[in-house]
Amino acid sequence: MSKLVSSLRYVVRQRSFQIALALWIAIGAAAVMLSGGTMPLPVGPHPDKPLAMVISSWIALVFLLLETWLVAFITRRRPIPDLAARGPAERSVALRETLGLWIYGATVLLVGRFVGLYYFGGAIAMHLNGSLVGATRVQSPAEVGTWAAYNGILLALVPYVVFRLRGYSNEQMNLKSSNLKNDVIVIAVVLGIGCVIDDFVLGANFLRLTHHQQIIGGLLTFILHIFGTDLPVMIFIYAILMPRYAKLGSPMTAFLLGAASYPAMHVFESWTMYDSLAHSALSVMVVFLFFFPPGVMKSFLTLRTGNAWVHVWGFHAISPHVTVDTRLIVSDFNIR
User: Fold this and answer.
1) Per-residue pLDDT tens for 142-198?
2) What is the DSSP letter of 172?
3) What is the largest CA-CA distance in the chain?
């Protein structure tokens, strides 16, 4: 208990944590006021009221913070990996690589939005239309395949190859386990909690699908999302950016930047609207309300284990994408 109290005191006293908390409160309040009581963004077919969305975001954040304490307990006998040592030797190089990667990533995401709208009538984003929130339209298999290939090649394969050619090893990119047994335990616990919540608390309908839909649809969902969102997020943020964040700031700052980078990659989700200043601001706020809590968990898992694969298998590829989004792929591919 004394360690827990001292850890909480350490966290609360960190300036970066105080700034993040103030911004989080401000985003929630501003989203409610800016929406005027009714959410104008098409976040699924039946978007929640703004206040309910903010409250659910706070609940998710608190729950995931508690889950990070569970992970901390499981990994208590492991040394904390030095991610800063895995980055470039010079801080100036770390800064250039960070800015260069974000400029590249922003360009890919922006181009994907326009390419998707032009060819399919919907943006190529980090998630398919309807992922996690409910679809507003049916997508063709060609559109889904293009989404997976576009993100997988440009946001995972290209950055990985470039940084490998720059001389960084898989270990320096957080892609090699230093304690496989403990990593597997963390993955099993986090995945188990996620699957229970997805199916029995949030009402994901995977268990209500037919056996054929569960097997074929689930496998197809797994493969498509591995390339479309899981590997891009892992390589871009938690393999490449996290060691550079650690080099540029304190461990708390690196953790928060890793958490905030996850929603930052989702600012062009299919339900965002940038046709006015108000809609643009609200889109960014809702993206952060929706994606910052899971970003906290992904960032902590990587920071604590030094293995970016842990978040993929424990908190992304299967839960929530297979458990929640199989129904989406079953619909898009007409699997009966």
Assistant:
1) 999 999 999 999 999 999 999 999 999 999 999 999 999 999 999 999 999 999 998
2) T
3) 58
The beta-carbon contacts of 100-108 under 8 Å, at least 24 apart in sequence, are 101/159, 101/236, 101/240, 101/241, 104/159, 105/155, 105/236, 105/265, 108/154, 108/155
Q: Which residue pairs from 252-257 have beta carbons closer than 8 angstroms and sit at least 24 positions apart in sequence?
A: 252/11, 252/14, 252/16, 252/17, 253/16, 254/83, 254/84, 254/303, 255/299, 255/300, 255/303, 256/16, 256/17, 256/20, 256/299
pLDDT one-digit tens code per residue, 88-113: 999 999 999 999 999 999 999 999 99
Q: Please provide residue 250's backbone torsions phi and psi, each rounded to the nearest 5 degrees.
A: -75, 165
Contact criterion met (CB below 8 Å) for 151 and 229: yes
* Runs of H (alpha helix) within the chain: 2-13, 15-35, 50-74, 91-120, 141-151, 158-165, 180-196, 211-212, 218-225, 231-233, 242-248, 251-264, 277-305, 309-315, 323-332
SS3 171: coil
What is the CA angle 113-119-122, rounded to 5? 45
Length of the chain: 336
- Joined together, the tokens standing for residue 28 give 């929630």
Lowest mean pLDDT among 133-137, 175-179, 272-276: 133-137
**Degrees (nearest 5) of the Cα angle 23, 156, 294?**
35
pLDDT given at position 49: 80
Whole-number Å distance between alpha carbons of 216 and 233: 25
* Cβ pair 324, 128 in contact under 8 A: no
The pTM score is 0.94
Is the model's pLDDT at 15 over the cut of 90? no
Calculated CA dihedral for residues 39, 44, 45, 48, nearest 10 degrees: -40
Of all residues in the chain, what percent are helix, strand and coil, respectively (each to 5)?
A: 75, 0, 25
Q: Cβ(52)–Cβ(293) under 8 Å? A: no
Task: Please report which helix (H) or strand (E) contains residue 2, including its range.
Answer: helix 2-13
